[in-house]
């Protein structure tokens, strides 16, 4: 501190100035505070709050709006400002202590700052178990094994390991294990998970292990979603995995998209986006990755879609600038609060001043984008400002200090003590600065300097922001002397400078006003003397020089101090002055001693409760009368609505009464006592303890498992009521304290929140509200947690052999009534529609069981059965994929793909496998004209084949092929038979038994047999017959005759030379080429030719003879003999030889009316000529002709006579008759005779029934044929 002392002539201290050298600095946190602090009841926790500033700040912790006690049973504030939570027993858990929001307040002279809200949560250590359940999965699909953790520790444990990670395995964000492409190898393993409790540092391995249960499905199944996440949160820069696991048959494939508005934009793998089928991995997360991602699982049957919303948060920094801002009064100041990095993430910004939320007004404007404007800065604006930004459970803040520039006034120029002559001119000046600019006032001997005719007072402000003030006296007189003081004052403080002005001349004392002083206090009186030089200045009372006691202190400079004033100190006081010449001056003043009011402390009850009566007595124990007494509340006059009664008991006693105290009566009450000289007061706090009153009374609620439940329980009162929640646990009906955990929290406002209701949460709850006033409030409410219907198993596969039985059990859990409906392949299914279905429903305490037993199951029941369950609180479903296994279908579309002479390649389409993998194919092949039997060639092939090449076949051979498919249940029926003929090869053998004979002088006749094909099969299209004149030169070529008919094994070669030897060979050929030639055969042509074929003609015929004639060949070749061949139509040929010189011949004894055939050959020494054409000739005559019925029959009542002689013979003699008859309606014939000679001209059929219709059948025969005729007749009646 600086002390500025100005002394005048008398060396008396006249002024005191003070200026601060020490620089203040507002508080600032040295480290950021966590958003959440969790600890266990066995460990406790320490939350530091470190800050610096000048002077060092004071730390105070607050919970809500109340201070945390420095020393408490459950918590305390340590000497370094840390908040310490002590370990505690579970029974000592208090939700308003152990599950609440805290803030740290740090204060020094510059202002106050506060930390962000710190969420404190204590966790009661309890035993828990971790379990892994079995999972069903279709072969080849992906499985998800879940690590099941109880809800009360779910958010404080982390799955740390399953098994060694490989590409086949992935641990999902939820801790579940993803197993890709499940096989039998995975089924044989046992899986356990291990979790880590981050609060207790305890690791725990699941007590129950899980297995993969593999199911084989061979019918198509549309994908079904088994695991995905609706929302996923990640931090910028981290790696985030989005799971989307579905099952189906065939195993689904996955496509990933990102939603842009309503459009799905495909995601392509890149350096940050990696697609592992059902897992999308986002590496190096950025804020741009926020959004909705869509996974589509497809297979050939259908598709399913899942959406996941990704929230990416990033650590952000809040910068409040400037950190220190110094402003002048009236300035406009601006603070800017910026957050980096900038994102589109929703953030909340709140301004604080000195730890309290800052409200806008006409001067303080809170603008968008983090701008704070303060217009016309005032002194109260100085302090600590904070910008608090909150985003997604994360908050950050920065601090700034506003320094309002202010300065204690200080003098830059002052006047000096001086002595002047009367009549002279003098100017006294004081210059002072300060912030804000001070005002300067002038006094003389403690009295304002009067501005009269010769005295002027003025001031102005210089460029240096300094106020200059002066007193000018144009003609000094003796009365102008005295102590002049200039006082510079602003809102920061004041400073006074004093100096003496003396005027040469005799002593002079200005008149003084009477004064009243207060008993018990001190008083200072300045003697307003003048004149120079003076010998002395003194004070007297009752003509006695002062002092005459220890309380009287006169000073040579004319100052008189009276201390600890007593009543007897009143009276006349005089100030006198003398000079060396004996001149004197004297002035008196009357000092009146008055007693100020003395208000005794108010006695206020500390135990007032709302509804009681109250009175406060104010006694003024001392003070001059008259005394007036009035009351104030919180510095203001008593409001009328308090219904207060004020009664004066006497002249110095006032009683304030309230007939009924209420909450509104709380406050600071002041008794103000006044008399003519002074006022005094005493203030006391009146606390009205108000018992709790319901503000929000909880009511009974009903909820559904998994839903959120909120019980609002709030009350008003003083002190603020504290809520305690209890719940009936056990059968004793006793309420026990509800302990917060991850699922159940008690909020600061007293509300009870159950995040996900479970059946165990049902029961009676009690909310108790107490504040130490009265018995408090309590109410018991019931929570009914209804169980929405759900199925225990979402999907199961049944593999059943055809003809066996299967039972589908749909076990619905939830509150009855539960309605169950069945679907099959998305079509309503009536389980009572077939006698093969046995349908049963059973109601159980936990729900309902619906079962369908299918007896003798068939392929038609292979499909997806869905059990839909529904109650009043929800719906669910279970899928049963029923796979009926049977023998496979035959291979389809069997056809020839390719062939050669020795091989055939066939292809086929895989058939329906009977829902059991095909183990092999069996192919059978046989020669096309053979029968299928057990000796067929059977070829076994692998199940994956759809093509096979059959080896070792014979060329140009027809084969038939069929196939069967095998699975574990047996063989299929045979496929359709296909027939295939192998390609040809050139004939592999030479023709056999080649014979060559001369046919004449110019032709030869060649015959042969086809080549043997026992080992080699080949097709023969024709033959080449080669010939050449026998010669010694074997190189001469053969002339070739081509015969394109594989069934022709002979040929005649003409245009040869007579009497010449020829060499003949035969060679078979086909489209592929020619085979080997036969061995050469030698033949010699004749000298001349055999005769040509004669031409036969009919000369005449009779019923028994035919006369033939022919022409005789007329050429150089003679005829030596004829061979005439003849036969009846269906008989064998007979030969007769005739001499070469005849030209006709008659055949006798032939049969009447019959056809005969004839041809002839002529021959000579050269050989037999070609046969003539065959002619057919019929002898005369025809079959018998039937007569008219009337000519044939003579009918009476009992017989009929048949006249056989009327039959016409047809030119040929009759041989015999056959006669049969029967009644018209009968089916059986009666044979009368079948050999009646023609010599018998008539016959009679006796014993007929009168008046009856009959049928008569007669057959007549001769050599030309038979004639059969039926006759219908009726016998006569007996009467004719």
From TrEMBL:
One of its GO terms (cellular component) is synapse. SMART domains: FN3, IG, IGc2, IGv. Residues 890-985, 990-1088, 1090-1182, 1183-1280 form the Fibronectin type-III domain. The keyword Disulfide bond applies. The keyword Transmembrane applies. One of its GO terms (biological process) is nervous system development. It holds the Pfam family fn3. Residues 27-119, 140-206, 223-310, 315-403, 409-502, 506-592, 596-683, 692-784, 793-885 form the Ig-like domain. It is found in: Membrane; Synapse. This is MDscam11. It comes from Limulus polyphemus (Atlantic horseshoe crab).
């Amino acid at each position: 501190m600086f002390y500025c002392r100005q002394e005048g002539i008398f060396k008396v201290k006249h002024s005191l100035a003070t200026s601060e050298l020490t620089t203040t600095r507002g508080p600032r946190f040295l480290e950021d505070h966590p958003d959440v602090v969790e600890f266990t009841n066995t460990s406790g926790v320490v939350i530091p709050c470190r800050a610096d500033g000048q002077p060092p700040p004071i730390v105070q912790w607050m919970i809500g709006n109340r201070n945390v006690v420095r020393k408490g049973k459950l918590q305390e504030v340590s000497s370094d400002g840390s908040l310490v939570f002590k370990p505690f027993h579970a029974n000592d858990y208090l939700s308003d202590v152990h599950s609440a929001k805290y803030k740290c307040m740090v204060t020094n002279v510059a202002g106050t700052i506060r930390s962000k809200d710190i969420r404190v949560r204590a966790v009661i250590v309890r035993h828990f178990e971790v379990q892994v359940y079995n999972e069903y999965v279709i072969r080849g699909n992906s499985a998800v094994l879940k690590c099941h953790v109880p809800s009360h520790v779910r958010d404080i444990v982390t799955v740390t390991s399953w098994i060694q990670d490989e590409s086949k395995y992935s641990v999902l964000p939820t801790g579940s294990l993803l197993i890709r492409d499940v096989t039998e190898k995975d089924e044989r393993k046992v899986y356990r998970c291990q979790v880590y409790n981050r609060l207790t540092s305890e690791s725990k391995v699941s007590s129950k292990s899980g297995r993969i249960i593999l199911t084989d499905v061979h019918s198509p199944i549309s994908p079904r979603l088994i695991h995905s996440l609706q929302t996923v949160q990640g931090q910028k820069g981290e790696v985030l995995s989005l799971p989307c696991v579905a099952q189906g048959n065939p195993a689904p494939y996955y496509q990933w998209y990102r939603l842009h508005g309503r459009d799905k934009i495909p995601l392509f793998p890149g350096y940050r986006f990696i697609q592992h089928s059902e897992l999308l991995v986002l590496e190096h997360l950025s804020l741009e990755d926020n959004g909705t991602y869509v996974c589509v699982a497809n297979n050939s049957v259908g598709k399913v879609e899942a959406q996941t919303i990704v929230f990416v948060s990033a650590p952000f920094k809040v910068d409040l600038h400037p950190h220190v801002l110094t402003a002048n009064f009236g300035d406009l100041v601006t603070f800017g609060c910026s957050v980096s990095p900038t994102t589109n993430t929703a953030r909340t910004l709140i301004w604080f001043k000195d730890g309290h939320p800052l409200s806008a007004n006409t001067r303080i404007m809170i603008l968008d984008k983090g701008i704070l404007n303060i217009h016309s800065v005032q002194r109260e604006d100085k302090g600590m400002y904070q910008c608090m930004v909150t985003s997604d459970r994360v908050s950050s803040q920065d601090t700034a200090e506003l320094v309002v520039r202010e300065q204690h006034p200080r003098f830059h120029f002052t006047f000096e003590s001086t002595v002047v002559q009367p009549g002279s001119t003098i100017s006294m000046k004081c210059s002072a600065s300060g912030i804000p600019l001070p005002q300067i006032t002038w006094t003389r001997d403690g009295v304002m300097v009067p501005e009269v005719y010769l005295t002027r007072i003025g001031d102005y402000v210089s460029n240096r922001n300094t106020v200059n003030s002066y007193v000018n006296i144009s003609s000094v007189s003796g009365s102008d002397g005295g102590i002049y003081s200039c006082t510079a004052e602003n809102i920061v403080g004041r400073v006074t400078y004093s100096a003496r002005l003396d005027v040469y001349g005799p002593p002079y004392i200005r008149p003084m006003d009477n004064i009243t002083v207060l008993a018990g206090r001190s008083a200072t009186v300045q003697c307003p003397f003048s004149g120079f030089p003076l010998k002395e200045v003194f004070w007297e009372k009752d003509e006695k020089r002062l002092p005459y006691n220890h309380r009287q202190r006169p000073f040579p400079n004319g100052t008189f101090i009276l201390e600890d004033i007593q009543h007897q100190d009143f009276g006349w006081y005089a100030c006198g002055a003398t000079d060396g010449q004996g001149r004197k001056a004297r002035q008196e003043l009357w000092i009146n001693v008055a007693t100020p009011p003395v208000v005794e402390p108010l006695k206020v009850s500390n135990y007032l409760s709302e509804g009681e009566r109250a009175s406060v007595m104010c006694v003024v124990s001392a003070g001059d009368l008259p005394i007036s007494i009035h009351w104030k509340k919180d510095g203001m006059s008593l409001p009328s609505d308090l219904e207060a009664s004020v009664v004066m008991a006497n002249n110095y006693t006032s009683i304030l009464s309230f007939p009924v105290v209420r909450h509104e009566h709380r406050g600071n009450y002041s008794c103000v006592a006044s008399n003519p000289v002074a006022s005094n007061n005493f203030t006391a706090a009146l606390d009205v303890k108000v018992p709790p009153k319901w503000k929000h009374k909880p009511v009974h609620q009903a909820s559904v498992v998994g839903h959120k439940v909120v019980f609002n329980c709030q009350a008003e009162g003083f002190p603020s009521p504290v809520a305690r929640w209890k719940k009936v646990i056990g059968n004793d009906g006793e309420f026990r304290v509800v302990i917060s955990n991850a699922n159940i929290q008690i909020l600061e406002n007293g509300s009870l929140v159950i995040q996900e209701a479970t059946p165990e949460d049902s029961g009676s709850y009690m909310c108790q509200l107490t504040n130490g006033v009265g018995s408090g409030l309590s109410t018991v409410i019931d929570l009914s947690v209804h169980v929405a219907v759900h199925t225990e198993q979402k999907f199961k596969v049944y593999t059943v052999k055809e003809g066996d039985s299967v039972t589908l059990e749909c076990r619905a859990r939830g509150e009855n009534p539960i309605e169950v409906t069945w679907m099959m392949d998305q079509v309503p299914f009536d389980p009572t529609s077939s006698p093969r279905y046995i349908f049963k429903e059973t109601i159980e305490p936990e729900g309902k069981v619906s079962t369908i037993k299918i007896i003798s199951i068939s392929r038609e029941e292979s499909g997806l059965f869905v059990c839909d369950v529904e109650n009043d609180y929800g719906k669910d479903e279970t899928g049963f994929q029923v796979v009926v296994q049977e023998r496979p279908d035959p291979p389809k579309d069997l056809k020839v793909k390719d062939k050669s002479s020795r091989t055939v390649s066939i292809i086929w389409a895989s058939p329906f496998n009977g829902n059991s993998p095909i183990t092999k194919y069996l192919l059978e092949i046989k020669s096309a004209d053979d029968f299928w039997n057990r000796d067929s060639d059977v070829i076994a092939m692998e199940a994956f084949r759809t093509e096979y090449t059959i080896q070792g076949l014979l060329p140009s051979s027809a084969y038939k092929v069929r196939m069967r498919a095998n699975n574990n249940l047996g063989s299929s029926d045979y496929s359709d038979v296909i027939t295939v003929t192998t390609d040809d090869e050139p004939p592999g053998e030479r023709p056999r038994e080649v014979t060559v004979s001369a046919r004449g002088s110019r032709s030869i006749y060649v015959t042969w047999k086809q080549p043997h094909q026992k080992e080699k099969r080949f097709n023969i299209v024709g033959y080449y017959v080669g010939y050449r004149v026998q010669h010694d030169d074997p190189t001469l070529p053969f002339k070739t005759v081509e015969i394109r008919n594989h069934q022709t094994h002979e040929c005649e070669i003409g245009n040869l030379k007579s009497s010449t030897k020829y060499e003949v060979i035969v060679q078979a050929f086909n489209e592929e080429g020619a085979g080997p030639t036969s061995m050469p055969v030698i033949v010699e042509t004749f000298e001349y030719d055999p005769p040509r074929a004669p031409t036969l003609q009919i000369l005449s015929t009779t019923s028994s003879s035919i006369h033939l004639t022919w022409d005789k060949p007329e050429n150089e070749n003679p005829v030596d003999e004829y061979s005439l061949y003849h036969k009846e139509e269906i008989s064998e040929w007979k030969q007769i030889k005739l001499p070469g010189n005849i030209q006709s011949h008659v055949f006798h004894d032939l049969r009447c009316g019959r056809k005969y055939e004839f041809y002839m050959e002529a021959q000579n020494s050269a050989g037999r000529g070609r046969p003539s054409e065959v002619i057919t000739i019929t002898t005369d005559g025809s079959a018998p002709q039937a007569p008219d019925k009337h000519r044939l029959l003579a009918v009476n009542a009992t017989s009929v006579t048949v006249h056989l002689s009327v039959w016409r013979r047809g030119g040929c003699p009759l041989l015999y008759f056959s006669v049969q008859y029967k009644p018209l309606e009968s089916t059986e014939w009666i044979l009368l005779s079948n050999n009646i000679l023609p010599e018998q001209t008539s016959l009679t059929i006796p014993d007929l029934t009168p008046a009856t219709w009959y049928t008569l059948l007669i057959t007549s025969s001769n050599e030309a044929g038979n004639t059969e005729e039926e006759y219908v007749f009726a016998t006569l009646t007996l009467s004719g």
